[in-house]
Amino acid sequence: MPAWFFHLLLLGCELTASTKSYTFQVDEEDDSDHILALSVVCLTDGAKDECNVVEVVGRNHENQEIAVPVANLKLSCQPLLTLDNFKLQPPVTFRLAAGSGPVHLGGWHRIMHRKDASFEDDDLSEEDEEELPPIMPAKK
User: Fold this and answer.
1) What is the pTM of this model?
2) Which residues belong to any copy of the Nucleoplasmin core domain (predicted)?
3) Is 121 helix (H, G, I), strand (E, B) or coil?
4) Cβ distance 49 to 37 under 8 Å?
5) Please, what are the domains in the chain?
C-alpha cells in the first residue's frame, strides 16, 4: 500500500472591476492529488455598497463548463461569507459575475504526494514486531 504525505498552502486572490477572474490550475503532468478549499469570501477596502456576486466556474462530468454562484456580498448587509472549506478540484476559476469589488477570496491548497514505495520498514509483519511484556498489577 503506498504511503502519502501532503503540503498545505494558503490561497488568496482578489477580484476587482479590472481583474474579474482568477483561475487556479496545476501542471497536467503532476501526478499528485490536489484539493482547493475556499474558506472565506469578503469585501475589502474600497468596496461600494452594491451586490458583488462571485461564481465558481468548473467542468461537469461531461466536460461542459458550469458556473455556480457561491457568494452575493453587499457592504451594508453582508460584507463577509464563511464557506467552511468548500472543497474543489483544480482547474477552477473564480469570477466576479456582478459588482466591482474588490472581493478577497481566502482558503488553502492541499497537495498529496505519493511516497516512494521503496521503504520496506513500514511493512513489518507481526512476527518482526517486539513483544511487550504483560502489564503487571500495581503492588499494594
Assistant:
1) 0.71
2) 11-110
3) helix
4) no
5) 6-113 (2.60.120.340)
